[in-house]
Structures are given as C-alpha cells and as structure tokens.
Amino acid sequence: MHDILIIGAGVTGACIARELSKYDLDILVLEKNNDVADETTKANSAIIHAGFDAREGTLMAELNVLGNSMFDKLSKELDFPFIRNGSLVLAFSDEDMESIKVLKNRGDKNGVSDLSILSKEEALKLEPDLNNDIKGALYAKTGGIVGPWEMTISLFENAVDNGVTLLLNNEIVNISREENHFLVFTKKSWYKSKIIINCAGINADLIQNMLAEPSYEIHPRKGEYFVMSKDEGTKFRHTIFQPPTKVGKGVLITPTVHGNLLIGPDAESIHEKEDKSTSRVRLELIKATAAKSSQSINYLEQIRQFSGLRAESDKDDFIIGENKKIPGFIDVAGIKSPGLSAAPAIALKVKDILAEKIILKEKKNFKPDIEKHIILDKLSYEEKNKLIAKNPKYGHIICKCENVTEGEVIDAIRRKVGARTVDGIKRRCRPGAGLCQGTFCGPKIQEILASELALELNEITLDSDSSYILTKKTKGDK
Predict the structure, then answer these.
(1) Catalytic residue (one of 2, 49, 238, 373)
(2) Are 37 and 153 in contact (CB under 8 A)?
(3) Which CATH architecture has domain 84-142+219-311?
(4) Domain spanning 1-83+143-217+314-372: which superfamily?
(5) What is the pTM of this model?
(6) Tens-digit pLDDT profile for residues 429-459
C-alpha cells in the first residue's frame, strides 16, 4: 500500500514528487510514456513568467509569483539551466500603452517586483532589433527562461534519490475507490494507494472521470513554434511579448537557455489530444505576427518546428484541491500557462492540502542537491584534460553541433532517471539539438544506446515505443 500515488511525470508531477520526498511517505509516480517530461513539459515556451498577466486573486496569480521566486534556489540545488533574462511586453499604439499600464497595475497587486513602463527609446536601447515603430514597453526584470525537461529530469532524479518510486510505461486503464484506499489498474499491473494526486495534464479529466461524474473538462490547445539557430539567438536577450489576447499571451520571441531563439506559439483549439502536427499555414501566421515585434529575424536560420498541447480547462483558473466527490483524490488540473512558472509553488499548495489529511513528518536525511552533471563544453581547458585522462570517452566528440562527448551520452543513460531513447538522450545532454538535427550524431547515439542497454539496433527508438528507426539489416548477415 502506497501513501501517495502521483499520476503523470511532467513538471508539475515532478515538483510535487520532489517536495513530498522531504517527508516520511511511500510515494509512487506512474507515467504512461517511456520517459518523464514527455508531453506538455517538453513542448512549450520555456518561460518563467513574472506574474503580471494572471488576474489578481486567482491561483494562477498567487502561484505564479511565488513559483517565480523559487527558481534561483531550485536551479542551484538541482543543476538545471535557468536565467533571469527579464521580459518586455511591447506596445504598438496608444491603446496598447494603456493596456500595459493595466498589466503593470495588475502585477503590482499580484506582488511582482521590478516592474516599469519604458519609453520607445528605453525599450530600443535594451533591444535594438525591435521594430522602430513601437510606442513603449512593460519591463519585468524578474522574468526568466529555463530548460523545462532538464528541470523535470533533475527533480525526478532528486525525488528518486530521496525514496520516490517512478514507474514508466504504466498507462492507467481504470481506478476504483475502496473503503480507505484506491486501486489503480494499468496496462501492466495494479497498485494500492491511500491518496491519489492527479497530474495527468491534458488527460486529467479522463482520469477523474474513472471515479466520478465529470466536474471539469480539459480541451487541448495547440501551439506551434520555430526553433532558430544560435546565430539568431544572439539578436535578443529578453523575452519579447506582444499584448496578450483572449486566447493567451500571443506570439513571443525569446532566447533559450541554450542560446537558440524560439518564436511562437499560435493558439489553436483542437479536439484530438494526441495531435502534435505542424502546418505551413499556422507557421506562416506565426511569422507574420512575430514581424510586428521585429523584422530582423532570418527564417533561413530555422533548424526545427514543433508543436505542443496546453491543458485548457472549462474553468478560469488552475484546478487544485481534493475532489469534492472523491475523498483522497486531489486534482491538479488545467495547468496551462503560467503552469511551468507556478509548478514549484503548486507543489507547496498540494503539500498544504495533504497536511490537513495526513501527518507529514520531515525526513532527517533528506538530500536537497543532486550530483552535478558533467558538461564538458563548460569546463576549463585544465578540467577537460584531467577528465579525459581519467576517462578517454570524454574526449570523443559525438555531436559536433553541440560539442557533446561519448562520456556525456553514457552518463545520460546511466543516471538515476536515465535515457532510453534517442530523444531522451537529446533532452539530457543535447546531441541532435543543433544545426544538423542529429544527421551526424544520430547513428552513433543509437549504437551507444544499444550497447549500454544490451539491445539490438533495431530495438532503439526515437522517442515513443513505436518510433523505431531501423527495421532490419540491408547488408551482411540476414
């Protein structure tokens, strides 16, 4: 019997698992995919919002501002990339200037610090590649950018190190409520737990509906993006927003923590919860919209396009709390933007809910830090030589675009929450994330995975269990 069963291994589930691992609890996390951070967490804007956009008095506003303040400490403890680069909301007209004044006033009420209204000249001094016809901007110094999948992986590594059990490839097919516990059935097995925390993202409503009549609905909203080369990434230091609309924060331009430039998303309400396709029409719309902010972007430097799904609920706020019809079942649903920014604070909110139900006894041996990951490209010349002398595999470059070595790839596989796919390697140490998108390093990554996992090459997948890369030999032994 587990004390807590968390459904979903995205960033919200990761923050909750790590926070609760500070206490003497038996915690199990179930994830339907073959890796953590494999849904919304891996396909979003990677923005840590300051907190001026969410309506005052909402959970979104409260948890965004608190969550934002937690990132500096978390990133140091868990060794994931985070930069406070600040953000600008541009105004293109006198009406927009009034709109950003409303945003500043809302931010002040929400408790956001370091907000100011800039003139056109002040904004252009910060970002010279903005269009010259802007009127001004709202400047939020506390805005940031993060590596969301590195963050989630590190959170789970630390949670597992502190006793949490993480089981992948465990898609839930049914849940039943017994007298004092739940029975959770997956395609592989079944589990008992006193409490369930539902962090299933765009499928959270389907999980809740296994136990009771629907109390909310989740509708996926798709957003498409361009990923630009690192040459384009040098053009902007801040995250550039346009005035928000009814369907979101609009098309943004932002540097990433790895030095690329990200442009998007659009907002398209869809019905299919697995539709992550991109389309020329939507991408052209993003280009046209982004051109309002800057016309200096060279789209010949794009290296990838992708889409992500956001969990848009029929409520006007996050859904966090014990389900009124299901004692012991805690919903953490409708976590759309600013969900990534709020995730660490959502974990505190869930902990407070649990504290009213069960005794939370702090562990005396909780380990807040993880072992630092080796990133050879960030080491000094002397440190590199010392490491390579100890293990020559750190001197063998696998990915020329991102300067990733064989030693780093092997580390990514052997970590506590290690990679099992080509994209899993990419999310941990970035081979395949550069200009050639894996053309050079892909085959070698497959060979290393096969060797480390004792698999045949045709058993190695790109991402999902069905995404096979090779099927059979074309030469040699049959």
Answers:
(1) 49
(2) yes
(3) 2-Layer Sandwich (3.30)
(4) FAD/NAD(P)-binding domain (3.50.50.60)
(5) 0.96
(6) 999 999 999 999 999 999 999 999 999 999 9
